[in-house]
Amino acid sequence: KNPRLILGIETSCDDTAAAVLDENGTILGEALHSQKEVHLKSGGIIPPVAQQLHRDNIERIVNKAICASGISARELSAVATTVKPGLGLSLGVGLSYSLRLVNEYHKPFIPIHHMEAHALTVRLLHNVEFPFLVLLISGGHCILAVVKGISDFLLLGQSIDEAPGDTLDKIARQLSLTSHPEFSTMSGGQAIEHLAQMENRVIFELKIPMSQHRDCNFSFAGLRSQVNKIIRQKEAEEGIQKGEMLSCAAEIAASVQYTVAHHIAKRTQRAILFCNKEGLLPSKHACLVVSGGVASNKYIRKILQSITNAADMTLMCPPPRLCTDNGVMIAWNGIEKLQAGVDILYNTKGVFYEPR
Ligand code: KG4
Ligand code: ZN
Predict the structure, then answer these.
(1) What domains are defined for the chain?
(2) Where in the numbering of this chain does the Gcp-like domain appear (predicted)?
(3) What is the ipTM of this complex?
């Protein structure tokens, strides 16, 4: 019997993405259109603009993924699409396009939770058994959770304000890194990592956020305002013009990276202690999965590695292209749900019903 084929569609934020996988996890075709450049110019995502760009690209991207896989839409076993969380206007484009497809071809529909898909991506490549601990750190996400099963997540903590990648991007802009030719092709987080490597003395002491909080939540907004104050003070001292880099930019970058890394590490350590106390993770071969754009930071990885070593856990990170938003993770999550028989909506002539 041929393996079943699943189409995954993702439009929750600023990437229009699609992929076709077979149920063994083989990626048959994928396509992605990023809106990042447009949003970078306007200094942030404007939802109606994102929606229009998804509309302009969805058909082309889905067809590209299907064509690359060498199949026709008729041969699909199901369509899996991100339905939450994300920008409502962006999600709507992927959802209505998917419903058009499943109605035309009479296919089952699998609604996907974007964060769950991020958390389970690792299982496409490695044999990671439930339960495991997951840390998602990116420009839009900051979450610690225990993954107990395909649709069974225990949220341990999340950011009470902004996500770490967002903070790093904003600080990089404040430091005028984004307009500097050396860093112009990098994200804010990458630029800060790069600069911090040149000067790894931590001379600006920044307060590690939430050290008094007995929970696993995160906060980055306070750190950002501490740094902004230092930047403005140094700019006045050095009498520099807008767009010029401070002479102490590398020292600031190193201090920011150190503080972000230690904040993330401390919350993760608390989560591990909590899991051990409550018996939420296996006593042998427990696993911490770290994903999201910020997880590619080598310094943050090094600190997380030392924490997992000390806790006798294995640290796993999916490759960067699967850490960022993509269609593969959505299709893979659809496959896991299809195989487990959960959350599938069957389509009978344009009317959906849930099994059981
Ligand atoms: O997962 P991702 O590609 O996309 C979204 O968040 O949508 O994450 C992007 C974020 C950006 O904020 C970027 O600054 C950050 O990840 N990032 C990094 C590094 N590379 C990307 N942060 C720290 N160190 C890095 N090397
Ligand atoms: Zn995401």
Answers:
(1) 5-121+323-353 (3.30.420.40), 128-317 (3.30.420.40)
(2) 26-332
(3) 0.98
